[in-house]
Amino acid sequence: MGRTVGRTLLWILAAGLLLSACNDGDSDVQLDRAAGSDSAQSPDVADPGDGSASDADLRSVMWVGNNWDGTATVVDANTLDVLKTGIDLIPDKDQELADIFANPVDLAFYYLIRFGPGEGHDQYVDDMFTTEDGRYLAVSRPSFADVVWIDIAKVTQGAGVDAIVREQDMDGQRTDHMALSPDGRRLLVSDSTSRQVIEFSMVDETGPDGSAVKMGDRLRSFVSGETPHESNFNRAGETIYHASIGRVYTPGDYPDVLPELLGPAQEAIKGDRWFQIVRNEDFEILARWNMGLELEESGYAGMSPAVRPMAISHDERYIYYQVSYFHGLIEFDTQAPDVNGQQDYVNEGLAEPDFGAVSRVVPLPNLVPNVPREEYVNDSAHHGLSLNESGDTLCVAGTVDDYVALVDRQTMAYSLFNTASTGNDYLKPYWTTEGPNDTCWISLSGADAVAVLDTRRHEELAFLPVGNHPQRVRLGQIPERVIMNW
Fold first, then answer.
1. Which of 56, 81, 231, 305 is most solvent-facing, going by the fewest CB within 10 Å?
2. What is the pLDDT of residues 213-253, one digit of tens each?
């Protein structure tokens, strides 16, 4: 343990110096990237309204982002056939790297991402969503700290850089998770190092003030804690559930070790880790919790406040979430009163809400009890949680345990899927997504594969080879006329 703690102490020092360099107003280093700028390669933005296919001409597909490859794989969401793989989502890689290597701060963060959250690899593709007409794919690219909008027909025909129709850089140095509004009009992007979530347009339209809004335009932002992570819209698109996870690449994982250093300083090392409910209409923060303190208030002391993936019940009463280091999940009742009825803490001006309480803590098997926390993937014991269409079964990625669990929402009884039970390599499951027909899609990042489970019958339906280190899997659509040319 001493060796791993020592190594990660170097990481926190490096990260602190880099963050200081970026945020210091007196720094002599100026960033070349301009937030909200269009791509230099493609100044003309294609109009997503021209020639869009009708609904009957669209096919439902699952997009798989192969993070370390910088590619995507497309799978038919109903037949489970792989339609195309190796789609290049970084055709501008040479130019991006040239820009990064020309700027000392960008270069430092580029390597920090590689050897921190990237586990020694560049992070080229984190998240993706298609536009409603299926013509464009929005992609967040952590190592390039940007979001690009890519013409699907062009990129799948080898158009290269010309397939990128829009690019937007972050204010900070890394992009992460994204969320698409239910109507397909707005995209939320976590700006990892700038404590904010940025909203972009996914359509061309006329704004409320009569101004023209183009696909890829930057619109609004709301504040987050340290390292904004996942956002989810409710079904009506009126509410956003958001969590920040803190500096998962730093030490402080063992608060009982060297308590003089790590105990009192843990919050400073890891940073603010908040769970927020945001009103979409005006981005007002309606509620902000420290889930570690909420867990302690309910009798579960010593658990992390860093909310990882989450799932929201269809009636929006219950939030299911994972936290760092915990093998299992937590159920949080948003309609329950606060446990002690007191405002015990304040998060940057917002007091603890008088509602919301942990209702259940559900442990799942820890199959690696001797693995130190410092070797968990970015502090995650489990990283991946979704709720099926029927709303009765949770799908859990047991990341360091190399299994997937289907969990009954009422009883919390579970079935495990792993190499022993399926005969396939269930290595480092990193994400789960609900699919059509009550399916769960799991990225098996250590096996370069995706598994598809039937959440009703608790059966494996498919095991599909994809690219290098698949992470996010998202439901989208593509015009049939595009697929016909593959």
1. 56
2. 999 999 999 999 999 999 999 999 999 999 999 988 776 65
